[in-house]
Each structure stands twice: as structure tokens, then as C-alpha cells.
Specification:
Helix 2 packs antiparallel against helix 3 and helix 3 runs antiparallel to helix 4. By secondary structure, this protein is α/β, with parallel strands linked by helices. It has 3 domains: 326 residues, polyphosphate kinase like; 179 residues, Endonuclease, Chain A, CATH 3.30.870; 188 residues, Endonuclease Chain A (Endonuclease, Chain A). The relative contact order is 0.09. The N terminus is likely disordered. Strand 27 and strand 28 form a beta hairpin. The strands form 4 sheets. Strands 15, 19, 20, 21, 22, 24, 25, 26, 27 and 28 form a 10-stranded mixed beta sheet that branches. Strands 11, 12, 13, 14, 16, 17, 18 and 23 form an 8-stranded mixed beta sheet that branches. Strands 1-10-9-8-4-5-3 form a 7-stranded mixed beta sheet, with helices on both faces.
Length: 726
């Protein structure tokens, strides 16, 4: 059982010290608590026996890694406000102190659940032949040969790199980096019975687990090895007690207005992040009070949130065990399709796009088509220019390689590299340097805004003129995440879109204010306003007695202005269906406010990531005249006001049908991976009933409407139906 100790006394007294009037009238859910609710849905997938065992373990690890990042960024921000006596209230009327009190309570409950789930999964893993051995079990669980191997591993692999440090006035408490973990030992010297306290940090470059050779998979955590061989580490001492601890530091990077060189600023900021303020100190349950007191004094001070976490610290590291070679305990491998439409043109992406617009649905259709588009551009002698935004590209990026190849081939290549992509800053600095060395014109965009739009444009000479080919994505140019995130890649040679893309890049690279955009809508200029106009149009249809509907899919819904407009639409009779995977501050199904709004969240094998909006346009959804958009933006203030994002209307009939009748309908009718948000903020898992439908399975089996090609046009694709068209 966890026992939270909040050194800064973020408790009921703090809440009573600052009573507040519920200014919002109960109109919003708290953003931070909504995120914690999402992470609990992720954790629930670790309990879902419909998933193979190692995939359940992976969900558990994801919930742990998610929670770490939440503390390093969101909780750190609130803690900073509290320390600076900033009393700015959230949209739901809470002060930073009140939010922290609620967060600590829910996060501790979540961590207790994680430990309970790990205990269950660990037992099931053992039954399946995968054991995770603690320090006390090593003596009996390993035979003599295995124990000798582990002892050799300790002496040859661990002993040379660890540095025990005595804790006394002559040895100040050492620095621990963010996510650092260590073991504290209470010892007594045998020669004179003198007590001594030692600290051993886990080497940051060492794997968390060691796999012991032999039949079956047996893993031992590094900290368990240290405890087991403590007598060899401290000869001449008796070990009275040992316990682990782990810490998280403030990891957000704030941009100072006077920053003159963004590259140098971020390079220094990344180094400073390792030494950020301690936000959370995790203690192994059962740690002796004397050791816990030392850690609180040395690391926590009056600011950190101190929590007894359980028997295993750093739940996110369990993902390493999920890599065990046991296909029987994992999802059946899935091979994404390459769009048949492009194959029909001999793999010529430009010819296929020139023929008609194409949308590619990842991960069911491979991200290789995006790479093929860029590689063809790099090798095509008729291509004169390539422009590309890069937010997250991954560590082994074929996208970067294609841009470098294009520059080395003499083409004009421009890359907008976003240095402010959280936790990818260092990688993006490295890519920017590599691109510049190859002759790519690298631009870092705006100081105050992030460039979050995913756009690429290729200018090609054809018949004495220039034609522009564009790619707009709802997700990053990241080959790894494209295998597990569901996103849309839209390709077009529409001249209007090409001109808008050029204006977008000129806006970012030269601060040239775009004139009248022909099709693409941008934030922070007018994206929120366009959505508001479209919702207003649905309100007018409803008031005129015509069918009115809004469908939208996103990762997060936070923006109060949009939420209020949706409430207004609901009260006017507009039927609203929202698919919000993560944070949702809107309260659905509240009489007199939002009774016509339904919100669901889909959490399953793939991470739902695409952003889509659809408006009935005078008829019930879905219909052929509906307004359909894809976007890079979630409906949050930061996306509308502090990021460069796009919203793109879909006109092509086939693409329109795929996005609306396939993707959106499948998400709405899914009943195997869906949760419905209730008016009290709770989520209830949808029961499949007698007609189960899994949207991920559907798309793994069936080709897309846009990319299937003429050869497959005769093949029947199951038609999805939500309600009759009118």
C-alpha cells in the first residue's frame, strides 16, 4: 500500500486556506485529473485478458512512463506556480495548490494500482516461463551454475562502474540526475560496531534487467543484484537494511524572450534539465524510517512530493521485459499494406498523386509510402525544391536521410526543425546539425510558437512549368511511431493547396504574413475561428429545423471557447459525437447544457492519433455534402494560440468517403476498445453485446477506399453503418 507524504503540506488545510467560488458553474472537468483518468484507461488495458500477456505488460509500462512525464512537466509547472505564489485558476476554478492536492491523491491511487497489476502480471509471467527474481529469491531460484554466472556478472560488469559513497559530513550527498535511481544501505562495521550509511547509484547507461542464461527466461533487476552481493561490495560490514529510491526532476524548458541563439540556448537548457528541481521522490515501500528521513532532508526539502511507491520503482522500465522473444505472448504480427493505387503507377508517387488525391491510413498502410515520396523527390532530376517541417523524426530517420540525399543532389531543400518538441530537443539539434552539414537550409521557426504542422511540399518541373505536390499528415514524420499510431497522410497536387503550402513555409521561415489562404486554414491565425464558424452553421441548420451534426476526433479537448460553442450547439439541438482519446474538459450529457453531446475514448492495440472534424452541412452525418477536415491540431488553447497548425478541407470524393464513412464511422461504432465519458467525469467501458466490432481489426483486414486501387475495386469492403443517410 502506498503512503504519500507531501512535504509541502498540500493537503486539505491548503484547500480551506483558499476557498474559491466555482466560477465556471461546473461546466468543465479539470485538465490534469482528466489526463490521469486517461492514464488509468491505459493501465486498464494491462488487465484486459483479451490482450496477450506481454502486450499487457507493455500497457503497464506505458502507464508508468506516461505518469513520469506528467510529473516532470505538468506537475512541475503547477509546483512552480505554487512556489511563486501564483494563484491563477484553471478553467474549472482550482488554484495550483488545490490541483496539486487532487493530483497527489489520484496519482498515488494510480501508482498503487500499477503495483497491484505488476504483482498479478509477474505471477502470470512466471507461470508462462518468464521469471523476474528479487534479491531474496536469488539464493533458491538459481542453481549453482546460474548463481556463479550472476556473481561473475556482478564482479565484471557492475563492480567496475558503480561508486559506493559514504554519507557523512566529509562526503556530501551526491547529485542524482532526472529519473535517477539508487540503493541506500545501512551498515555496521564489524571491527568497532560503527554505523555507516552508503549510497550506490545505478549506472544510467546500464540495462535495468539482466537475463540469466539457462532454460526459461529469468530476469534480475540491477538493484536486486546490488542487494544480493552487498557483502562483496562492502567487505567487513554487516548489512542492516537496504532500500531503493528514485527521483523525477522538473524537465520543462521555458524560452526566454531575450534568447538570441536558439540552438545554443537549447543545448544549454538540455544540460540544465538534468539538474531541475526535484518534483517527485519515490521510496521503496518498507524503507526504514531513518533512511527515508535522510532522503527527505537531502532531496525533497519542502518542495518535492514524496511517495512510497511499492516494491518496484520505475514501472516504465518493464517495457524491457516485453521484448522477450515469445511470439505466443504477443499480438499476432501485422504487415501494413503499401497502397495499391501507387503500385498501379509502377511505384511512381507523383503520377499517382497527379491522377487523384490519396489518403494513406497508418499504421494499416505503411509509412514507407511517405518515405517513397521523399526518396523519389530526392532522386528525380525534375524536382527543384523540397520543403519539410520536422517536429519528431526519431533516432534512425529515413526522412532525414532522404532530405540529405536531396540536398547532396543539388536540390533546394528547406527543413523547419522544431527545437521545442518536448523531450526530442536534443535529437532535433543533432538532426539540424546533420542537415546543415549536407547543405539543407535549416530554419527553427518562431521563438514563441511551436511549429506543429506536419507538411511537406515538392516542387517539380513538368512540361516547362512547375507543379507542387504536397503531403499533409496528422502525425509526425516518425517511422517508428507510424507503426503504432493511427494517423492520416494526405497527398495532393491541387494547385490551391500547393500555393497555400508555400505561403505556410514563407510564414515560418521569413515571417511573411500569409495573404488570403485559398484552402488551408492556419493557427494561430484563424483555425479556432473556422471551427467556430462551422459550428455556428450547424446551429443555424438546427434552428431552421434541418438536421445538424458535428463529429470530431482528437487527442485532447481543452479549449474553453470551443467547449462553450459546443454547449451552445447542443442546446440548439445539434447532435454532437466526439472521439477524444485523452484529456476532455467538456462535460457531456448534462441536462440543459450538453445533453446532445456524446464523448467516447478509444484505447487499444494502436494509439488513436488522427485529428478529424466533420459537419453535417444541413443533413445527418455521414453524407456526401458534409464538410470534412483533417488537421494537425488538437482542440486546446496551445494549438489554437501558440502553435503553427493546419486545418485542411477534404474535397476529393473517395478521400471524403474514406475519412468520413470509414475512419469516423469505425471509431464511433467500435465497442471492443471504447469507453464512454459520463457527466460525472467517470468513464464506462462499452460492452460489445451481440455485435462486437473492433475498429483496429477492421482496418487491419480491409483495404482503404482511397488506396486500394482499380484491381481491388471489385472486392467487397464491409460497409460500415451508424445511421441511415438523409
Amino acid at each position: 500500500m502506498t503512503r504519500p507524504t507531501t512535504i509541502a503540506r498540500i493537503d486539505a488545510e491548503d484547500v480551506l486556506d483558499d476557498p474559491f467560488v466555482d466560477r465556471d458553474g461546473g461546466r468543465y472537468f479539470n485538465r490534469e485529473l482528466s489526463w490521469l483518468s486517461f492514464n488509468r484507461r491505459v493501465l486498464d488495458e494491462a488487465c484486459n485478458r483479451a490482450h496477450p500477456l506481454l502486450e499487457r505488460l507493455r500497457f503497464l509500462a506505458i502507464s508508468g512512463a506516461n505518469l513520469d512525464e506528467f510529473f516532470m512537466v505538468r506537475v512541475a509547472g503547477l509546483k512552480g506556480q505554487q512556489l511563486q505564489d501564483v494563484e491563477a485558476r484553471s478553467a474549472d476554478g482550482l488554484t495550483p495548490g488545490q490541483q496539486l492536492a487532487a493530483i497527489v491523491e489520484e496519482a498515488d491511487s494510480l501508482m498503487a494500482s500499477q503495483q497491484a497489476v505488476w504483482s498479478d502480471i509477474r505471477a502470470e509471467l512466471a507461470e508462462a516461463g518468464i521469471s523476474v527474481l528479487g534479491s531474496h529469491a536469488l539464493a533458491t531460484a538459481l542453481d549453482a551454475e546460474q548463481h556463479a554466472w550472476l556473481q561473475t556478472h556482478f564482479h565484471e560488469q557492475l563492480f567496475p562502474v558503480i561508486t559506493p559513497q559514504a554519507l557523512d559530513p566529509a562526503h556530501p550527498f551526491p547529485f542524482l540526475p532526472n529519473r535517477g535511481m539508487a540503493v541506500m544501505f545501512d551498515l555496521v562495521r564489524r571491527s568497532d560496531q560503527e554505523p555507516i550509511r552508503e549510497l550506490v547509484m545505478l549506472p544510467p547507461g546500464m540495462p535495468r534487467f539482466v537475463r540469466v542464461p539457462g532454460e526459461g527466461a529469468r530476469y534480475v533487476a540491477t538493484e536486486s543484484i546490488l542487494k544480493r552481493f552487498a557483502p562483496a561490495l562492502f567487505p567487513g560490514y554487516d548489512v542492516l537494511g537496504a532500500a531503493e529510491f528514485r527521483l523525477l526532476r522538473d524537465s520543462d524548458i521555458e524560452i526566454e524572450e531575450e534568447a538570441e541563439d536558439l540552438v545554443r540556448y537549447f543545448a544549454n537548457a538540455i544540460k540544465r534539465r538534468r539538474r531541475g528541481r526535484v518534483i517527485r521522490l519515490e521510496l521503496e515501500t518498507g524503507m526504514p524510517d531513518t533512511l527515508a528521513a535522510v532522503l527527505r532532508d537531502e532531496l525533497g526539502g519542502a518542495d518535492a512530493i514524496v511517495t512510497e511507491t511499492g516494491s518496484f520503482l520505475g514501472i516504465g522500465d518493464l517495457s524491457l521485459l516485453a521484448d522477450e522473444d515469445r511470439p505466443d505472448l504477443k499480438f499476432v504480427p501485422f504487415a501494413p499494406r503499401f497502397p495499391e493505387r501507387i503500385r498501379e503507377f509502377g511505384g511512381d508517387c507523383f503520377a499517382a498523386i497527379r491522377s487523384k488525391d490519396i489518403v494513406v491510413h497508418h499504421p494499416y498502410e505503411t509509412f514507407d509510402v511517405v518515405l517513397a515520396f521523399l526518396k523519389q523527390a530526392a532522386n528525380d532530376p525534375d524536382v527543384v525544391a523540397i520543403k519539410q517541417t520536422l517536429y519528431r523524426a526519431g533516432k534512425q530517420s529515413a526522412v532525414i536521410s532522404a532530405l540529405i540525399a536531396a540536398a547532396e543532389a543539388g536540390k533546394s531543400v528547406t527543413a523547419v526543425v522544431e527545437l521545442k518538441a518536448r523531450f526530442d530537443e536534443e535529437q532535433n539539434l543533432q538532426w539540424a546539425s546533420a542537415l546543415e552539414r549536407a547543405g539543407v537550409q535549416v530554419v527553427y521557426g518562431f521563438i514563441d510558437w511551436k511549429t506543429h504542422a506536419k507538411v511537406a511540399m515538392v516542387v517539380r518541373r513538368e512540361n516547362g512549368k512547375f507543379r507542387t505536390y504536397c503531403h499533409f499528415g496528422t502525425g509526425n514524420y516518425h517511422p517508428v511511431t507510424a507503426r503504432i499510431y493511427t494517423d492520416l497522410s494526405f497527398f495532393t497536387a491541387d494547385p490551391r493547396v500547393g500555393r497555400d503550402a508555400a505561403r505556410l513555409f514563407n510564414y515560418i521561415t521569413g515571417y511573411v504574413e500569409p495573404g488570403d489562404m485559398e484552402k488551408v486554414v492556419l493557427s494561430p491565425r484563424s483555425l479556432r475561428e473556422r471551427l467556430m464558424q462551422d459550428i455556428d452553421r450547424e446551429i443555424a441548420h438546427a434552428r431552421a429545423g434541418r438536421p445538424a451534426a458535428v463529429w470530431a476526433k482528437m487527442n485532447s479537448l481543452v479549449d474553453p471557447t470551443i467547449i462553450e460553442k459546443l454547449y451552445e450547439a447542443s442546446n440548439a439541438g445539434v447532435e454532437i459525437d466526439l472521439i477524444v482519446r485523452g484529456i476532455c474538459c467538456l462535460k457531456p450529457r448534462v441536462p440543459g447544457m450538453s445533453e446532445n453531446i456524446r464523448v467516447k475514448s478509444v484505447v487499444g492495440r494502436f494509439l488513436e492519433h488522427s485529428r478529424i472534424a466533420a459537419f453535417g452541412n444541413g443533413a445527418a452525418l455521414p453524407n456526401d455534402d458534409a464538410l470534412v477536415y483533417i488537421s494537425s491540431a488538437d482542440w486546446m488553447p496551445r494549438n489554437f494560440d501558440r502553435r503553427v497548425e493546419y486545418l485542411l478541407p477534404i474535397d476529393n470524393e473517395t478521400v471524403h468517403d474514406q475519412v468520413l464513412d470509414q475512419v469516423m464511422v469505425a471509431n464511433l461504432i467500435d465497442n471492443e476498445q471504447s469507453w464512454e465519458l459520463q457527466s460525472d467525469g467517470s468513464y464506462v467501458r462499452v460492452e460489445p453485446g451481440d455485435k462486437p466490432f473492433n475498429l483496429h481489426r477492421y482496418f487491419m483486414v480491409n483495404p482503404s477506399l482511397s488506396g486500394r486501387g482499380a484491381a481491388l475495386d471489385g472486392d467487397e469492403v464491409p460497409v460500415l453503418s451508424l445511421r441511415r443517410r438523409r
